[in-house]
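Lab manual, section 2.4: Encoding a predicted structure.

Procedure: take the sequence of the chain (455 residues), apply the prediction step described in section 2.3, and record the output as structure tokens. A sample record is shown.
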Amino acid sequence: MLWTCRVLYSPAGPSVRGWQPLRFDGGAFHLKGTGELMRALLVLRLCAWPPLVTHGLALQAWSRRLLGSRLSGALLRASIYGQFVAGETGEEVKDCVQQLQRLGLRPLLAVPTEEEPDSAVKTGEAWYEGNLKAMLRCVDLSRGLAETPGPAGPILMQLKITALTSTWLCKELTSRVRGPGASVELSPERLAEAMDSGKDLQVSCLNAEQNRHLWASLSRLHCVVQHARTQHVRLLMDAEYTSLNPALSLLVAALALRWNSPREGGPWVWNTYQAYLKDTHEQLRRDAEAADRAGLAFGVKLVRGAYLDKEREVARVQRTEDPTQPDYEATSQSYSRCLELMLTHVSRRGPLCHLMVASHNEESVRHATKRMWELGIPLDGPVCFGQLLGMCDHVSLALGQAGYAVYKSIPYGSLEEVIPYLIRRAQENRSVLQGARREQELLGQELRRRLLGGA
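Recorded output:
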């Protein structure tokens, strides 16, 4: 049940009296039903319990054996699945999105498919081709949702490149493009030309199988972006592990050369930058300046990052330098520097530069809104905010009611497809889940107000 909306703070533009901070005090929870709040509080408390996150897949298998598939599935749908997933069918997704739109929020659909770096090498292209079809359907669904009543604005969709190309190829490409003496054959320009011409690509430093898979991967990526462009859907490419990111950035750069020109009305292809890595600010600065020099539109999703424990473990085992920031404070400082860099570019380049402030951190979000006001960036302009479906609603709702563009990252699909994906995300975002104590406190306060105060 959705409650009647009241606006917390809705300036038409910068206040003549100065910037007024948003209140992330849970006041916007009045927009949600009591059942939704109770489920959110229960699920967030469960997800903050480390054993559940660590042994999630084993517990799911145990639950199916003990309770049976039907009862186990019903419990998941009423709890974790229902909290974090839009649904399985197109109609279920549409219903979820319409609820969000009534709250002033926008959808960022995500196909819950990826290939883990340590997964077995797949034979042939069938798995990746199947994922391509799922991505194209997601583009169509994203476009269809834009036809429903709700906040107008750019249609965004996120995807993982490792659903369309193998991690073993990404590791190989990373080794070839990283450091001095990088192969000139693996330039964004050459890859973009190959995608545009449709001609077979041969790279001398790759073997025959790798060349075949690279060409098939480029074809799939080009197909998705081409279809997304036709449907007016902008694609946000996720970053992943440092062993893969240089290859992912190479592929995104090639796509950007083709699709982010001003005549295309871009950016249609965005890259993701992880502030918890030591070299992110410098990489972001170089990429922003390169896009500016080339006259290309530039789209960025700025995140803190989610692979901290695994990155540190890999560095320890391989006896290499830890690529991550030393602590949370250093990561926050890195995020602030990257945010300032991008907001400055947005204020200077206008519609050619877009930014998603993807953060659950209240201070980061509050600082972004303040700098937007100081730089004269409109609330519903090239800067938007992003949070996960089912989390950080006290921030998302306050932003949405104030008139900012806010997207909720929305996975969808069957239980079998989505639950392993959710468990991997929970394992990667332990600190976020365990740090959601404030949201739990605000949920508890609102529930006590309703149940004890008769509201």
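Check your result against the sample. The two ends are 15 Å apart (CA to CA).
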